[in-house]
Amino acid sequence: MTGSKGTPPTYPIEGHDFFVFTPENQEKIEAILKKYPVGRQASAILPLMDLAQRQCGGWLPQPAIETIATLLKMPVIRAQEVATFYTMFNLKPVGKHHIQLCRTTPCWLRGSDAIKSICETHLGIKPGEVTPDGKFSLTEVECLGACINAPMAQINDDYYEDLTPESMKNILQNIATGKSPPTGKVSSTKAKKPLVEDEEGDL
Ligand code: FES
Q1: Which of 100, 103, 104, 161 to mutate to test the pocket of ligand 1 (most atoms within 8 A of CB)?
Q2: pTM score of the predicted model
């Protein structure tokens, strides 16, 4: 879950030097906080950071981290520790479509190098970068728990699995033109049933 998060931006950044939750999110926060025992509201930090990140267009500015720390009555450094530990929190702006490419061993063995390469070539960016039009950003992450259909990538909240360079390019082209390509297992070329022993103990 951990990894390089890049250099956090220096503030103020236009539109992000101050943060307040929207009234709609404030209502959600009230409901979230009620789920925790009195005195344990700091445990709500992950859902609150997720709300803040979504409100900010996919990343978590420092003022949002400070607002959450104040709201949960915890030292800012504790909130920063959480934000910098979990790679799902982005500490600098990302594209409208944020690609998280799994690079852990099962995905690497199944061709994540080629998936990374097609992303870089097609989008003209390297990991950690955003396309000039702000549509896409690319980052490399550790296992996202879909190894059975490696290689895979997560784009915003959706998983795309069993990728090939061609299918990845197709997905990027579809997203760029406002379409929603099918999520989940992209290719139908491989059987992905679990191995089960027969009566003789053979697989
Ligand atoms: S190794 Fe890529 S999803 Fe697990």
Answers
A1: 104
A2: 0.84
Map tokens 């784009």 to a residue: 155
Residue with tokens 């990845």: 168
Ligand 1 centre distance from Cα of residue 153 (Å): 9
Q: What is the pLDDT of residues 118-171, one digit of tens each?
A: 999 999 999 999 999 999 999 999 999 999 999 999 999 999 999 999 999 999
Helix (H) or strand (E) holding 136: strand 136-141
Which of 100, 107, 148 for mutating ligand 1's site (highest number of atoms within 8 Å of CB)? 107
Mean pLDDT confidence for 184-202:
63
Distance 138 CA to ligand 1 centre (A): 17
- Mutation probe of ligand 1 site: the residue of 99, 143, 161 with most atoms within 8 A of C-beta: 143
Task: Kindly list the protein residues whose Cβ atom lies closer than 6 A to any atom of ligand 1.
Answer: 102, 104, 106-107, 143-147, 150, 152
In sign, the C-alpha dihedral spanning 117, 124, 176, 137 is positive
Helix (H) or strand (E) holding 185: strand 184-185
| Under 8 Å between Cβ of 89 and 35 | no
Give kind and range of the element (H or E) at residue 172.
helix 165-176
Q: What is the pLDDT of residues 78-98, one digit of tens each?
A: 999 999 999 889 999 999 999
